[in-house]
Design goal:
- The chain has 6 helices and 6 strands.
- With 221 residues, the protein is α+β, with helices and mostly antiparallel strands.
- It has 3 domains: 1-72, Helix Hairpins (Orthogonal Bundle); 125-157 and 194-220, no CATH class; 160-193, Chaperone, DNAj Protein, Chain A (Ribbon), CATH 2.10.230.
- The strands form 3 sheets. A two-stranded antiparallel sheet has the order 1-6. Strands 2-5 form a two-stranded antiparallel ribbon.
Length: 221
Amino acid sequence: MKDYYRILGVSRDATDEEIKKAFRRLALKYHPDRNPDDKEAEEKFKEINEAYACLSDPQKRANYDRFGTPEGMGATADAGFGPFSSTFSDIFEDIFGDFFGTFTGQRRRRRPTRGADLRYDLEISLEEAVRGTEKELRIPRWVTCDVCDGTGARPGFGPVACPDCHGSGQIRFQQGFFSVSKTCSRCGGTGQYISTPCSKCHGEGKVRRYRTISVKVPAGV
């Protein structure tokens, strides 16, 4: 059975933060980009990946401490860990993402985010609560700007290629032995920059509008 704590150089009662720091230090030291054609470093890097994938997961760590395997009783110690598994890419970005941006210059697909729920605080009288009532609410929403058609630029000008990233949306640079890229802060990764913003939406491409809706409040609320 592999001793994951020994591999990362931490004690068995190490905190999550201590484990993360140990992994960060060792991953940088033994990463293949820093040790080209070094088989020993490559094997060490695989071990570090495997150890951290186990000890960074509360359930896998509990199974390992109790049964000696991340999967628990009846599983083999090496099950579920490829040398460069997809788990590691997520782990690496979670730890180094804020510093390096996107590792090795590859853009990571953005997951769609769920819109926020709409909440409205409505005051009603005691009589309205008892008998029920109907109220009209003005709900704010964002719509495409009718002056610039959503481009954010003043009519006749239009967006231009971002001068910082030259239209790529990414700022690429060399960080030691790593080739990394980071989302351009000026254009937000779009690759376009509004040099002459629309006077109505001020470069946002959308404006706030209000919609009136009728809401029935049932009796006895």
